[in-house]
Amino acid sequence: MRIGLEISPLAINASGIPNYIFRLLHGFASIDTENQYFLYTNRPVPFDLGLPGNFSTIILKKPLPRFQLWFQIELPLRLRKDGIDVFHGLFSRLPFVLPVPGVITVHDLSGYKMPRFHKRKTHFTNLMYPFFVKKASRIIAVSEFTAKELGSCLPEASGKTSVIHEAAPLEYSEVTDESELNRISQKYSLPRRFFLFLGTLEPRKNLPGLLEAFLREADSIPHSLVISGAIGWKTEEFFNNLKVSASKDKVKLTGFVDKEDIPALLSLAEVFIYPSLYEGFGLPILEAMACGTPVITSDAASMPEIAGDAALLVDPRSTESISNAISTLANDEEKRVLMRAKGLQRASEFSWEVTAERTLEVYRQAILKEKI
What we know:
Blueprint: E1 2-6, H1 17-31, E2 36-41, E3 55-59, H2 69-72, H3 74-81, E4 86-89, E5 102-106, H4 110-113, H5 122-135, E6 138-141, H6 144-153, E7 161-163, H7 178-187, E8 194-198, H8 207-217, E9 224-228, H9 236-243, E10 251-255, H10 262-268, E11 271-274, H11 283-290, E12 295-298, H12 303-307, E13 312-314, H13 319-331, H14 333-348, H15 352-371
Parallel strand pairs: 1-2, 1-4, 2-3, 4-5, 5-6, 6-7, 8-9, 8-11, 9-10, 11-12, 12-13
Helix pairs in contact: 1-15, 7-10, 8-9, 8-13, 11-14
């Protein structure tokens, strides 16, 4: 097969969808030397992708690449020129005129269902979702939860959606090197014992709720709360609450964390806490588990599906539920040890190689469907 993929989000070099794209490409590279992969973007990727010779990166710039016209005008022409058999919209979108079978990955429907949680520029993309779903020959949903929501919101997805989970990166494992742990601790000025949240600071991550729950327990436990991640949008409530808190000295904000530092950061944390209101998959849960860190996460959306019985589940809308979980894991070392073992096992059940194999099968199904 000659496979086309949009990789323009990799130019951002951030978390979320760029991580999914990067890991999937390397999943393909680890299992496939026969198919040819054509990676389309409007901007150079600012780092070496480290892919083998059957992968080619193609930069398209006409017309006006910053305004995405390249995607609608030059890309379809180039797909035909390159003899592409199937195109995968990893960013949940497809060109309006697509000369080959199209596949999209749907990461979540939070923008479609919860526009109040997102930037205004996201709203136009939400309006296009029905078109992309209808146009796609096949759809990949990253969780059973997302597939169910997709079928409920957009019935056109029924019958052509496959659930393919993500996985923690191979390099995510417990860091035991004391010099590396000390380096990361000093780099981010970390407290000795802490609960860790890691992710973009945005409304659906439920940071005001997490902060309120932690502050209820702050005076009775020896732990601090470390919040790591880039500042996103609509964070005023969280920062205002933190500013007036009497225990704000027990809350540490590190800002954005370099990707290569994350395994050590997770290894240093005594507990990873992720009480998000909505996740299409919730990859940080598996990343923490792979590093041997006990996890508290929500009993909502996809998170119970991904965590299984290896995490302590809480009601993300209940401050009491979150604070009780914090108290439990802060004071029960035996439970932390048990959850660490369960988390390591759970993380090992997900694999990017399996994800890549199942994605290739979706491509074959999309090609076959167009031929029938």
